[in-house]
Design a protein that fits this description.
CATH architecture of chain A: Orthogonal Bundle
Number of strands of chain B: 21
CATH topology of chain A: Arc Repressor Mutant, subunit A
Number of domains of chain A: 1
Largest sheet of chain B: 6 strands, mixed, barrel
Number of helices of chain B: 30
Number of domains of chain B: 5
CATH class of chain A: Mainly Alpha
Distance between the termini of chain B: 61 Å
Order of helices and strands of chain A: HEHHEEH
Helix content of chain B: 40-55%
Distance between the termini of chain A: 27 Å
Structural class of chain A: alpha+beta
Oligomer: heterodimer
Helix content of chain A: 55-70%
Strand content of chain A: 5-15%
Chain lengths: 108, 877
């Protein structure tokens, strides 16, 4: 599947989803997004890291330092309680929007 | 939201840690993915995402700007000093205006204090103080007032350990201090029982208490001698307390207060002695309008009591005015303060123009740097922001220096300020003034930085990079701005110098015009007789006549006389009627300043006798009803030299006072100050007023004038010893040369003139520096072109003339613009001028010539440098 241009604001939602199950570092988030989207979504570091920092500032992600699989110090991001609530509401809205868009497109 | 804010604060506080974490995160990313490209941009994005990018960028710009300024002292020093000068002047003047115009008077709740005055348009257009019997009526009729207090100013003799001295004093009613809301620091205010005739109690000012009683904490109950009689100290006022306030008082500051204690005579002397200041406090909730309405009713009631005594005087109408105390105190200074603020503002504007120009010169030199940074990806906004930050850093530093300048300037300023300037004690650099000054500096910095930054950031990238070597030129747009700014500077300098020139000319004329007398070799001594050995005018006159005779016998003395006041210090005004007035009857009765004289006063002064004769020995005895008048009075009422033999009387022609016959006319002698026009002045023999048992203050406090061939110091010694031999208890309160007396009358004018002249000189220098800076820059930018011209055979003189011509054109344009500005603005100095019109040709041409000369001198150095450019430059560069 070809690479997708992400609509404005979508990246934040996807990042929240990517760390919903377990804490991940920056590369981990990118890998997870690629894997979940079957390579349709590939995030450049220039977008990914600022987004992570922005989400941390908003209080939706919490960061802690840990050791990565290749034995390096890495910054791990995980969802906060507020982040989980945000993920749920955003995901719900996104689904409703997707349904609405699909309905419109499929109306003959 | 809170979390967001907390994060930003943490991010700001732990900037270093955050930066290290970011670095580590990026390293991890690079190591994991093997990609390093674009990580710097990513970092920048993360910094922005932290939400503190603005602050961080500013901090970095501030550091960068500071470093840049330190490495370019040739730019930073002149620019900073120029700004410091403008800012310092503005801050100093603002501090003065703030204290004088904006600060409330130093009494609690001073905003509700009201000054009550009377006005009788028939006699004088300006409000006058209140007659003692009317005060009770004001108190009864003023329901809007919480209290009504009265005071009169006095001079009293205070005897202590040393010789008696004359101190400024005030009689105050018991209500006054409680109504002002002040309590003595020691002791208590006067009680109603103490506010009675013959009560010998006194409240001292803090300064007098320290000086005379050594700050004795047990001072209450101690006895001081006033007018030769023992007075018990009832209280000591807190430091800084002054009443009457400056601007209202004749001669501040007041040293002590005694109870008013109106005598029955004073309380029955209806419609006379309008010398009580009356202060009232508005009741909470009452408005000034209510008080004014009540005073209008009260005025009618008072006038009815007057009619019982005066009968019906046609056209007599009494008004009672109630005005906020502060507005009356401040009113005389408002014009001066506005003028000074405007002058300081112009100087600041000029220094800003200068600094903008210096910035433009500098950006010319930094074009390559800017172009390079733009090429490396700095946005236009980023470059502008950095330029503005740098200017702000410079302006804040200059503001700091300016504060220092203002502080130093204010010390000189307050020392030279006339004593009548209100609140002069409060003038200083308060936190508020300092902060306002730094805020102004910041604003000025932003303004000065914006224009150059906007212009430079527009510059064409390619051109900027292509330029080789250190050569610096401007775009046409920048060059136009530069020339315009120089023109503006010259124009502002012309406006300031023109105002200063007019004031200086007025000052010189006031000083040179003289007082209508020969001041050299003339000494003035003020003496005052205590009541005890001199109960009545007969004894007083005997003392002064003996003193006069003793002094006249001293070696070197050529003339001695005694008078109730000195030239330029008259404060006795009398309203009069002329027996056979010519022409239309005036709307109000004329008035003259008045003096009592003893001995040959006019010969002693050196004032010419123009018509008639002096008082004879018989007339000096006081029974002849005669007077002498000044030349301008004679010219107004009896033109053509027909004054002698004419008669006038004090008050309206219906009054009961006797007709007085003019026996002589003397040349005009200045009565108010050297820079006030000589008005009508009348002279009476001393004994004509001071006789019988009526011992007025004016009969006991006299000035002796002594003309001598000996040096002043010798005459001074003669006066002192003569007075001491007659009566050691009589204080010689002042001993001054007449020149010093006249000079002192110019203190307020000297203050204004010095300040504005300082601004004018500063403006001249700054505009010269501005002109020089721009031309020097232009010449250095055109070296190549000049070199080519030289190589083609241009003569050095022609090259120099080219540069000079360019400077002269800018200067002339500035002069033209400045002339228009001065023409529009000069009317604001018009009220301060003396025998000088705003169109004074000599001032205008003089200022224009001086400015042009300085401008050409400023152009000369760059022009000379241009003429020395070697033709080889054309080949080398």
């Amino acid at each position: 599947m070809a690479k997708l241009e992400l609509p404005q604001g979508t990246l934040d939602l996807l990042i929240l989803k990517a760390v919903a199950l377990e804490a991940r570092h920056g590369c981990g988030v990118a890998e997870r997004l690629q894997q979940m989207s079957k390579s349709a979504v590939q995030v450049a570091p220039g977008s990914l890291y600022p987004a992570l920092h922005r989400l941390e500032r908003r209080g939706w992600l919490r960061a802690r330092w840990g050791t990565s699989e290749n034995n390096r110090r890495a910054k791990y991001y995980e969802l906060t309680r507020a982040g989980r609530a945000r993920l749920e509401s955003e995901a719900g809205e996104w689904r409703r929007l997707a349904v609405a868009v699909a309905d419109i497109l499929e109306t003959a | 939201m809170l979390n967001d804010l907390g994060y930003r604060l943490r991010a700001l506080a732990r900037r270093g840690q955050m930066e290290r974490d970011l670095e580590a995160e990026m390293r991890h990313h690079a190591a994991t993915t093997g990609q390093e490209r674009g990580l710097e941009q990513t970092k920048e994005g993360c910094r922005d995402a932290r939400g503190v990018g603005g602050v961080e960028t500013t901090l970095r710009d501030v550091r960068f700007g500071w470093r840049g300024l330190r490495h370019a002292p040739g730019f930073a020093l002149p620019a900073g000093l120029t700004l410091a000068l403008g800012l310092g002047a503005t801050m100093a003047i603002f501090a003065v205006a703030n204290a004088v115009l904006l600060q409330p008077l130093a009494y609690p709740g001073a905003g509700r204090l009201v000054l009550v005055r009377e006005r009788i348009r028939l006699l004088a257009p300006q409000p006058i103080q209140v007659s003692a019997p009317d005060i009770a009526a004001l108190r009864a009729g003023g329901a809007a007032f919480d209290g009504v207090g009265a005071y009169t100013e006095e001079h009293l003799d205070l005897a202590g350990a040393g010789a008696a001295t004359r101190v400024r004093a005030a009689r105050v009613t018991a209500e006054l201090f409680p109504l002002l809301g002040v309590r003595p620091q020691l002791g208590h205010n006067f009680t109603a029982a103490q506010d009675q005739p013959g009560q010998h109690v006194v409240i001292l000012s803090n300064a007098l208490w320290r000086q005379r009683l050594g700050g004795d904490a047990q001072a209450v109950g101690r006895v001081v001698r006033l007018e030769g009689e023992p007075y018990t100290v009832a209280g000591v006022m807190p430091p800084g307390f002054e009443f009457p306030p400056r601007g209202l008082a004749d001669s501040p500051p007041t040293a002590l207060w005694v109870p008013m204690g109106f005598t029955p005579a004073e309380l029955t002397d209806v419609a006379d002695n309008f010398d009580n200041g009356v202060v009232a406090r508005l009741r909470p909730g009452a408005t000034l309008a209510e008080a004014r309405a009540q005073m209008a009713v009260t005025a009618g009631r008072i006038q009815q009591t007057w009619q019982k005594k005066l009968g019906a005087v046609p056209g007599l109408h009494l008004e009672v005015l109630a005005d906020p105390l502060r507005s009356v105190v401040v009113a005389p200074s408002r014009g001066l303060m506005t003028l000074l603020l405007a002058a300081a503002g112009l100087l600041l504007l000029l220094s800003c123009a200068n600094v903008v120009n210096l910035f433009l010169v500098r950006t010319g030199a930094r074009r390559r740097e800017m172009a390079l940074r733009a090429a490396l990806g700095a946005s236009r906004g980023r470059l502008i922001r950095q330029g503005v930050t740098e200017a702000a850093v410079l302006a804040l530093a200059a503001g700091g220096v300016g504060l220092g300048l203002a502080w130093a300037g204010l010390r000189g300023l307050t020392a030279a300020a006339p004593a009548s300037l209100p609140q002069v004690r409060d003038i200083g650099l308060s936190w508020g003034v300092g902060l306002a000054g730094l805020g102004l500096s910041l604003l000025v910095g932003l303004a000065c930085g914006l224009l150059p930054a906007l212009l430079t950031s527009r510059a064409n990238l390619q051109n900027g990079l292509r330029e080789s070597g250190p050569r610096t030129t401007h775009t046409r747009r920048e060059a136009r701005w530069q020339a315009g700014l120089v023109v503006a500077q010259v124009a502002i300098a012309f406006i300031l110098m023109c105002g200063a020139g007019l004031l200086v000319r007025s000052f010189v004329r006031a000083e040179a015009g003289g007082a209508g007398l020969r001041a050299t070799g003339l000494l003035a001594a003020s003496l005052s007789l205590p009541k005890t050995p001199y109960p009545a005018p007969a004894q007083e006159r005997a003392f002064f006549e003996r003193l006069e005779a003793d002094l006249a016998a001293q070696p070197g003395v050529t003339a001695v006389a005694v008078a109730s006041d000195l030239p330029t210090e008259s404060n006795w005004n009398r309203v009069f009627s002329v027996e056979h007035p010519t022409g239309r009857a005036p709307a109000k009765l004329p008035d003259s300043t008045h003096s009592l004289v003893l001995g040959d006063y006019f010969r002693a002064l050196g004032a010419p006798l123009l018509q008639g004769r002096n008082f004879t020995a018989v007339e000096e005895q006081g029974q002849a009803n005669v007077l002498m008048v000044s030349a301008s009075m004679a010219a107004r009422f009896w033109p053509g030299g027909h004054a002698v033999g004419q008669r006038i009387k004090w008050g309206p022609s219906s009054s009961t006072s006797p007709w007085l016959t003019v026996v002589g006319v003397v040349g005009d002698v200045k009565s108010a100050a050297l820079d006030q026009p000589s008005g009508f002045h009348t002279y009476e023999p001393y004994a004509q007023v001071c006789q019988g048992s009526a011992s007025y203050s004016v009969c006991r406090n006299l000035d002796v004038v002594v003309r001598s061939a000996l040096p002043l110091a010798a005459t001074e010694a003669q006066v002192r010893s003569a007075a001491r031999q007659l009566d050691p208890a009589v204080p010689v309160t002042k001993l001054r040369s007449m020149a010093a007396v006249l000079d002192a009358s110019l203190t307020p004018r000297r203050f204004n003139t010095t300040l504005i002249a300082t601004f004018g000189v500063a403006a001249l220098l700054l505009s010269a520096v501005g002109l020089y800076g721009v031309l020097a820059f232009v010449v250095s930018g055109q070296r190549h072109e000049i070199g080519v011209r030289m190589a083609m055979g241009a003569r050095p003189r022609a090259v120099a003339n080219m540069v000079l011509g360019r400077g002269a054109r800018m200067a002339m344009a500035g002069l033209g613009l400045g002339a228009v500005g001065a023409w529009l603005l000069n009317r604001y100095v018009a009220t301060l001028l003396y025998r000088t019109t705003t169109a004074d040709a000599a001032t205008w041409t003089g200022v224009a010539a001086l400015l042009l000369a300085v401008a050409l001198a400023a152009c000369y150095v760059p022009a000379r440098r241009a003429s020395r450019v070697s033709p080889l430059v054309a080949l080398r560069e």
